Amino acid sequence: MFVRHRLVFSAIAAALSVLAGAATAAAAPPPLGQLPSPAAISSPLTGGPLVDPLGRPTPQVIEAMRVASRAPALSDRVSGMLEAAAGFFEGSGTPGVPLPDNAPRFAQFGWPSVADNCIGGSLRSVGTAIAVPGPADLPLPGVPAGHTAFVFTALGTGTATATQPEPMEVTWVNLASFRSGTTRLTYNSINPDGPATLNGLADTGSGPVVALLQGAVTTTSDQSQFTCRFLPTVGFFTVR
Questions:
Q1: How many helices (H) and strands (E) in the chain?
Q2: Distance between CA 70 and CA 19 in Å, rounded?
Q3: Closest to 199 in 3D by CA, of 116, 121, 117, 97
Q4: CB count in 10 Å sphere of residue 182
Q5: Is 117 left (phi over 0), alpha (psi -120 to 50) or beta?
Q6: Number of structural domains found in the chain
Q7: Sorting pLDDT into bands at 50, 70 and 90, what band is 140?
Q8: Nearest one of 158, 214, 156 to 187, comparing CA atoms
Q9: Is cis: bond before 144, omega within 30 of 0?
Q10: Are strands 224-239 and 196-202 parallel, antiparallel or unpaired?
Q11: Is the pLDDT higher at 176 or at 3?
């Protein structure tokens, strides 16, 4: 059991290193003459909270994402991911799915994910992941106490296929009980007209939980299917 927990924590740590690895695994850094001045790349973060009460980044953090996306050492993929995340949170990018008035208490994962060649097989999609700790009435049929519902939406896509050939999974660890597991997300008729949305229910138990989401979503649009492979994202929340 201890080995299994170490593997889960290693997977979560690996996800946290994706951005750094993607930035440094590219070609050698550009010549010094091509680097912007320190003033041009300094972070706009000057103290204060980094997230709002819903766990969304503050305007300062969003601006920091945009500044970071222009760093010449970043690959186009990572730069595009940062730009997409900033656009999503400030509302200038692909809009999210409207929440009902009686929406339950939920926690967003740490950052939106992205998948290239996803929408129509050619455009990038931003993926959003949330955790709904129980007890909650939504998503149907509800979330019991001591459980967590995970919901992933690939924005801008068609509907999810009934059968998902490649898995979208959440690996989670309860930091109070050290209970751990992996929950596969499936299509359960949420957003039947799109965007593609998968969900799953995990018996996490009560307490603080850290979770790693990674995998793919297969969508259908105009009688064609497209498999979108999303970068990992990590969430942290408390289950009652």
A1: 5, 10
A2: 14
A3: 97
A4: 15
A5: left
A6: 1
A7: confident
A8: 158
A9: no
A10: unpaired
A11: 176
Residue 60 is part of which domain span?
Answer: 2-239
Sequence-ordered list of residues with C-beta below 8 angstroms from that of 38, at least 6 positions apart, any chain: none
**Residues 183 and 131: beta-carbon distance below 8 Å:** no
How long, in residues, is the chain? Answer: 240
Mean pLDDT, rounded, for 19-25? 41
- Asked if residue 123 lies in contact with residue 132, where contact means CB atoms within 8 angstroms, the answer is no
Q: Which residue bears the tokens 């929950």?
A: 183
Q: Are 180 and 5 in contact (CB under 8 A)?
A: yes
List the beta strands (DSSP E) in 161-206: 168-174, 180-185, 196-202
DSSP H or E stretch at residue 64: helix 59-69
Task: State if pTM tops 0.85.
Answer: no
d(CA 235, CA 237): 7
Alpha carbon distance, N-terminus to C-terminus of the chain:
24
Cα 136–chain centre separation: 21
Which residue matches tokens 């091509």?
A: 34
What is the 8-class DSSP label of residue 74? S
- 134: its two tokens: 């129980």
Q: What angle do CA 101, 209, 134 make, to 5 degrees?
A: 35
